[in-house]
Amino acid sequence: MTLDTSVTPARWQEAVIERIMPQTPRVISVFLRTRLEPHVAGQHVDVRLTAPDGYQAQRSYSIASAAGSDGIELAVERLEDGEVSSFFHEVARPGDTIEVRGPIGGHFVWRLEDGGPIVLIAGGSGIVPLMAIVRSWSAAQSKTPVLLIYSARTWEELIFRDELLSAQAHQSALAFIATTTRGPRHRPEDFDRRLDRALLREVLAHWARSPRHVYVCGSNVFVEAVTSSLVLETVPPGLIRTERFGGEN
Amino acid sequence: MATRGFSGRGRGTGAEQPGRLPPGQFLTADFPVLSAGPTPHIAREDWGFTLQVGPRKIKSWSWGDFVRLPIAKVTPDIHCVTKWSKFDTNWEGVSIQDLLADAALEPPTAFTLAHSYDGYSTNVPVKDLLGGRGMIAIAYDGKPIAAEHGGPARLLVPHLYFWKSAKWVKALQFTERDEAGFWELRGYHMYGDPWREQRYTNDP
To answer: Which of residues 33-62 of A touch B (CB under 8 A)?
Structure first.
């Protein structure tokens, strides 16, 4: 494995909100203009907000943009009592300045030279760092096979859905399977139930490739269930990288 | 520089106890999970713990041997580098100094690497493990530690960011130099003091 010891998130710097775009009923994309070093797909940034009395709140957000992009896109889900997410949803507007540092993370990352085949499995907003991988892969016109299995509550709550459908239509090496747990499926290849072991087995068998890298991102319950199933389906644990959301974020 | 429109109205229970929440952290009542890969499930009868000096094994304990060592109880606050903190967590385990005493070993170097069943490792200076500051925990909240939280046993070094408290721990190795572990090789700080906010490699 290549290790990037040159990761230098270092100091806080200002970033300007360029654009805020609704993605789903509960998720917005926040586009930032920054002077951060170029990121690798899968990395995150730390965001810091400061109140007039000096109180500060920090959170980590995965970067959705392709590696090396100009500016970065974050996807922010509205959370009950989330002091940072409610700021982005209710207060922030283009032209506002926040503080960021990063990019951060040297494990849940994919570089072009890492190759594949790649399996990406997302639950809810766990799609964000995986979207960066899909976009980086797509931008490089890589022929490496990619399988993305994305679970959300409903078809409307699949973040980046139209972009993923379009990417699949244009790139035969990308297989995109959606599963919705509280709403009907919209395509014959999709599912409308929990991403359990049987579903994984069926999709992996149909894909018929041996993954070299597996990335799983979502809530802890989701990641725990998916990775246990993968291991039972004889995917070597050493190939599987995980990123889990805490109870709050 | 204040952020326009941010009042911090969401600041909660942690802010009511100034001095208890390290900078940049927020308080949670949950116990979030952070791991680099799948959760390994290790049965107690398959579990063992080894003390090493470099490549040399000093002593190994089976689960049965281990639970007969002196058991200490601690109730620390814990702080994860992903920003959550949790107060008053209840752990039971064997302190590192009791473990060394049982092996009749004086610390031969100033540094250690903890090793885990999933291939994880993390470095902790010896001084941060002695004097009751570090233990091999075998119970949480009076019960066996759940696999996703590192059971059967995890290292507990609560005064450092929680990635130092290696889950599924199987060995403690004394090293000549301060050697980086898994996250330390991947952008995270070599020491990880929450009060100095030593999150990432180049933090002071």
So the answer is: 46, 48-53, 55-60
